[in-house]
Design goal:
Layout: E1 5-8, E2 11-14, E3 16-18, E4 21-28, E5 52-53, E6 85-90, E7 98-104, H1 122-128, E8 131-135, H2 140-143, H3 158-173, E9 179-189, H4 191-201, E10 211-215, H5 224-237, H6 254-269, H7 290-295, E11 304-309, H8 323-337, H9 343-346, H10 353-376, E12 382-387, H11 406-410, H12 425-444, E13 463-467, E14 472-475, H13 479-490
Parallel strand pairs: 2-5, 7-8, 7-9, 9-10, 10-11, 11-12, 12-13
Antiparallel strand pairs: 1-2, 3-4, 4-6, 6-8, 13-14
Helix pairs in contact: 5-6, 8-10
Pfam family, one: COesterase
EC number: 3.1.1.-
Keywords: Hydrolase
């Protein structure tokens, strides 16, 4: 069987071709993080001598098994610690050099993979004339457990270090696939977007990318003390006491690691919404809060597209609910964000499921994204968007929920069949507009294209592009709500219900 062959620093790779796009799947960008490499920083992959087949996706990081059809398209991937693989779609002709778009998937840092069908890169690569790269990274306890305080060479933010290893691989090898290492744009959604916020602030990621697109996620981290408490609780589940021998972590079955992590999460948060696995602020990898670091210019010169969906929270809150549920959600949100008592701000929202959804949308997604835009626009051009597209009558997509924009960005509307949706010409037009804007940004550092003028976001007019039936620019959308959220942050209450996990 023949296919396109590419040279890398580690050996030759033979891929496949589809609709004029060369595709390489399951490329190892780091050594398998197993045994003595478990819970440690990623290491370079071993080279190979013969031509390596790269036609099939690699295994995905251990995560809760997907039983539906939307995440992995009804297929069952291989779940493994040996998961550090990336995938490349290239439409480049001989001698052509194209910009590169590296996708970081979301999934609350516990689910997902670069091989998910909705991230299939053929259409984006072909229509946008870009190289598309999707990456895996360690998830859950394997990728986001703050273990460096416990010695033994254990790492913190291992999942972020995996992303950096993938970007380093791209810098060293993407030219062999027709890509320009000087024009690498990161784009990601949810936890992938939160990862990008962290990468903007991480010293080890400096110089590895030239632009960023952040979809539905901003700076989100744990403080070191919180992370250490979570790590200690996890070790306790494994029978490792403070100051104990952590070498046991190298040999325990992965299933036991996952079981201990699940028990730890339940004991610390019960059934409440929580994000115990996420980036942590610590000196060796992420020395400062990303939002603060961005405000101080750490990402100077990196243009940014950032935005949210109109009804983000309605993915997580649906159906009927009570005031008791609202109060519990409020406490969970305080813990997730590490912020002070939100009770006064919550008075502006009804104590219903819809109120919970709106509050999560406004505070966790929209307001935090505006904060990043405000901080970065002083150091580089910033463009802001909002995705408002809905499908009336659909049980989920009648709202512009969290993640609803992804298939439009990748031009993978055929995946909408898993949601029982028949694609319309209007949906195709919206998808073309988003793909064209995203890939134009990768080409020129500006998302404006013919027929779609997109002004930069400034504090003067806060221009925001609304992706809806009528794509339009709105100055400072929901200004009253934005200023209320800003005022609450500038004048927080003195007492706090947020703090360490033990409080």
């Amino acid at each position: 069987m023949t296919g396109p062959v590419a040279d890398t620093l580690y050996g030759k790779l033979q891929g496949a071709q589809c609709d004029g796009v060369n595709i390489w799947r399951g490329i190892p960008f780091a050594a398998p993080p197993v045994g003595e490499l478990r819970f440690r920083a990623p290491q370079p992959p071993e080279p190979w001598s013969s031509v390596r087949e790269a036609r099939e996706f690699g295994p995905v990081s251990h995560q809760p098994v997907s039983t539906g059809s939307t995440r992995f398209g009804g297929t069952t991937p291989e779940y493994s610690e040996d998961c550090l693989y990336l995938n490349i779609w290239s439409p480049a002709a001989e001698g052509e050099v194209l910009p590169v778009m590296v996708w970081i998937h979301g999934g609350t840092f516990v689910t997902g993979a670069g091989s998910q069908p909705m991230f299939e890169g053929t259409h984006m690569a072909s229509k946008g004339k870009v190289i598309v790269v999707t990456v895996n990274y360690r998830l859950g306890p394997f990728g986001f457990m703050h273990l460096s305080p416990f010695g033994g060479g254990l790492a913190s933010n291992a999942g972020l270090l995996d992303q950096i290893a993938a970007l380093q691989w791209v810098q060293g090898n993407i030219a062999g696939f027709g890509g320009d290492p000087k024009r690498v744009t990161l784009f990601g959604e949810s936890a992938g977007s939160m990862s990008i916020a962290a990468l903007l602030a991480m010293p080890a990621a400096q110089g590895l990318f030239a632009g960023a697109i952040m979809q539905s996620g901003a700076a989100q981290t744990l403080k070191a003390q919180q992370g250490e408490e979570i790590g200690a609780a996890f070790l306790a589940e494994l029978g490792i006491r403070p100051g104990g021998d952590t070498t046991l972590l190298d040999t325990l079955p992965a299933e036991q690691i996952l079981k201990a992590a699940g028990a730890m999460v339940y004991k610390l948060s019960g059934n409440a919404m929580s994000m115990l696995f996420q980036p942590v602020i610590e000196p060796d990898t992420l020395p400062a809060d990303p939002a603060q670091a961005i405000a101080e210019g750490v990402a100077s010169g990196i243009p940014l597209v950032i935005g949210t969906n109109l009804h983000e929270g309605n993915l997580f809150f649906r159906g009927s609910g009570s005031a008791e549920n609202f109060d519990q959600s409020l406490q969970s949100l305080e813990m997730m964000m590490g912020v002070e008592n939100l009770a006064e701000l919550a008075l502006h929202y009804p104590k219903t499921v819809e109120g919970q959804a709106d509050f999560l949308t406004d505070l966790f997604f929209w307001d935090s994204s505006i904060s990043i835009a405000e901080r970065q626009h002083r150091y580089a051009p910033v463009w802001m968007y909002r995705f408002d597209w809905t499908i009336p009558g659909h049980p989920l997509l009648e709202k512009a929920v969290h993640g609803a924009e992804i298939c439009y960005v990748f031009n993978n509307l055929s995946h909408m069949a898993h949601y029982g949706v028949e694609v319309t010409p209007a949906m195709e037009s919206l998808s073309d507009a988003m793909l064209n804007a995203w890939t134009a940004f990768a080409h020129r550092g500006d998302p404006s294209v013919s027929g779609l003028s997109w002004p930069q976001y400034t504090l003067d007019d806060r221009a925001t592009l609304i992706f809806e039936q009528d794509i339009r620019i709105v100055a400072d959308p929901d200004r009253k709500k934005r200023t209320r959220l800003l005022s609450a942050q500038e004048n927080p209450p003195q007492d706090s219900s947020a703090g360490t996990l033990s409080e």
